[in-house]
Specification:
- By secondary structure, the protein is α/β, with parallel strands linked by helices.
- It folds into two domains: 250 residues, 3-Layer(aba) Sandwich (Rossmann fold); 28 residues, no CATH class.
- A hairpin with a 2-residue loop joins strand 11 and strand 12.
- Helix 6 crosses helix 7 and helix 6 crosses helix 9.
- The protein contains ten helices and twelve strands.
- The relative contact order is 0.16.
- S-adenosylmethionine binds next to strand 10.
- The site of S-adenosylmethionine has 21 residues, from strand 10.
- This is Methyltransferase.
């Protein structure tokens, strides 16, 4: 597998993953194309158009393909490894499609649903309340059938299951991650360990950038030659992104433990006056 490590591979996610060995990836993160149906939707959707990929296939075909890719990622991931899958709820002619529909058909244990509050999204119609959330599913590969796995350190778990940061704007790619997203995941899951981080729909390479900055190895895949090349170039200048990384790392702290608060008769709950109080047992 050495030849794939620290590379951005140009190719189809499923076909490329098929060439990989079993059980060698520690952690993965991705945002696949959402099957937004660019032909039938308004100009906002049409403008988020990928370089070469078709984002308009029958929904059943899309869900089957995603299930297959997720199961292939399961195969290449180590037992005890995780995969974070960013998606959103969509509607086609009034019918809702929820990612849980196909996630439940995969081999993964669904460990958590995180709400990503993006604070802003392109939406000018009033069919529904303005949809500014996306979801991030923490998928887990059990070890010998144990679906629970290890606990996160408190300094990571205290960040809560609602993540509030805006999408990235300073990037030519039409739908890039903000660097904070893969940074939070890699730092929380691997903590001070290093591993191999995979993104099978890597786009502008943000997942690999976060992995590199945190001292891990990475493998990125994208069907577009242009995006794969741009991502490689972005990775060469990875140190330009160090400030953003440090900003996120500084949020992983425990100010006072549960025991500290209890001993000083402080509030041991999680919320007071609308503020999160950090009070988990270490
Ligand atoms: C939502 S974007 C990912 C953006 C990425 N998270 C970033 O930070 O830039 C989805 C990517 O999937 C790629 N893609 C679409 N179909 C693909 C396929 N079959 N195999 C691999 N990549 C594909 C597109 O070219 C696009 O770059």
């Amino acid at each position: 597998m050495e030849k794939y490590i620290n590379k951005i591979i140009q190719g189809d996610a499923f076909e490329t993953l098929k060439k990989f060995d079993d059980n060698f990836i520690d952690l993965g993160i991705t945002s696949p194309p959402y099957n937004k149906g660019e032909k039938s939707k308004g100009w906002l959707v049409r403008n988020v158009k990928y370089n070469i990929a078709n984002d308009n296939v029958p929904e059943e075909v899309y869900q089957e393909e995603q299930t297959k890719v997720l199961d292939e990622i399961f195969r290449v991931t180590k037992p005890g490894g995780s995969f974070f899958y960013n998606h959103k709820t969509r509607w086609v002619r009034g019918k809702m499609f929820h990612p849980i529909e196909w996630l439940k058909k995969t081999k993964w244990a669904i460990r958590q649903e995180i709400i990503w509050d993006r604070m802003i999204a392109a939406n000018i119609r009033g069919w529904r309340f303005w949809q500014i959330d996306e979801r991030i599913y923490w998928l887990y590969k059990p070890i010998e059938g144990n679906k629970i796995g290890k606990e996160l350190k408190s300094k990571h778990a205290l960040l809560t299951s609602i993540w509030r940061f805006p999408p990235e704007r300073k990037n030519e790619h039409p739908a890039p991650f903000p660097l904070v997203l893969p940074t939070r995941i890699i730092y929380s899951i691997l903590d001070d360990k290093k591993g191999i981080v995979l993104d099978p729909y890597v786009g502008s390479g943000t997942t690999c950038l976060a992995a590199k900055l945190l001292g891990s190895n990475y493998i990125g895949i994208d069907i577009s030659k242009k995006y794969a090349k741009d991502a490689e170039n972005r990775l060469k200048n990875y140190l330009n992104y160090k400030n953003k990384l440090d900003e996120e790392i500084s949020k992983h702290i425990v100010e006072k433990t549960f025991a500290d608060r209890k001993n000083s008769n402080g509030n041991t709950g999680k919320f007071r006056n609308g503020n999160i109080i950090q009070s988990k047992l270490l």
